[in-house]
Predict the structure.
Amino acid sequence: MPGRPRQMSATMLTMFPDSPAATHLFAAACIIHHVPLRLLTKYFYPEASNTVVFVLMVLVLLVKPSGLTGRTT
Amino acid sequence: MTVMTDDTIPAPRRAISDEMIAFVIITALLLIVPLTGLYPFFVMQALCFALLACAFNLLIGYGGLLSFGHAMFLGTAGYFTAHALKVWGLSPELGIFMGTAGAAILGVITGLVAIRRQGIYFAMITLALSQLLYFIYLQTPFTHGEDGIQGIPQGYLFGIFNLAKPTTLYYVILAGFLCGFLIIYRAINSPFGEVLKAIRENEPRAISLGYKTDQYKLLAYILSGTLAGFAGSLKVFVAQNASLTDVHWSMSGEIVLMTLVGGLGTVFGPVVGAFVIIAMQQYLAGFGQWVTVIQGAIFLICVLTFRRGVIGEIAHFFRRSL
């Protein structure tokens, strides 16, 4: 599916947009995103597996806009 | 001695006079288009995108809110109108109403979420919501996935005007565009528009003056989304289909491009920008995928050399408001 790489990078950007250690945390982003969230969604409700990443993105932007590990200046 | 700056020139009364003259000239030119032999499909499509870009400009140019998800209004209204016409067999005016109302409701829902953040975060939230809808429409049965809704009947508007006739359809689209344009023009020249400009310039100052800025921003977002939806509903009658292309993030990018090329925060800039971009897509179609590269190059040139956009630069040169 052509949209997948874009979705993954979108989630990573959301989680670590301002972090200087962003590159080191990409692996962690994969774990956070792909293992529990995406796979579980795919298992329990496959129809939402594409959309769940954007729900997460909106939630992170609303709750902690600088990202999960980003610094607020 | 008064220092003349972009903000002080021109005076409001003269500005409105200039804009009205430009409006009359543009309307007169658009009225005679069917007599010129110009390809009507191109002009109708450009008019729909011009209204869409004007709606986007209301939000970014006057409210300072950069939305990267305006395609969701265009696509949603298109799908609603197409479904109402083809499956429910509703008349064109009811189809347009359904599409526009759908976009307005979507504006309320997404606006309540998005206006909680500002700047890049607002843009990212609108982009995420738009992509969310894209994948929903990809899987929902009524949109027919990647095929889209095709072969939409045009019917008779108010039971009188046969939209299957290109000339009749052209004037209906033109009337819709002018209505939408005048609503935007009225909004930006009203006290509501002045408060929007104040929020764009200095939101904390506007709050300190007692304005509930969140309510103003939400209203601007809903108005912009509704008019973008209206443009999407009109586009269904021109293209006779509703597809995923209209909801894709690249469409949101094209809307930004049209507005920037024409002139951000100008009245007529988005109209000119829409005509330039649609003309490029239409007449450079022979270049295939290179059209996107050419568009990118034009965007770069625009940003680097004339940042005010086509109309913005003309207005600045002649010291007029356009």
Notes: Chain B touches chain A at residues 113, 116-117, 121, 124-125, 128-129, 131-132, 135-136, 138-139 (CB under 8 Å). Chain B has one domain: 12-318.
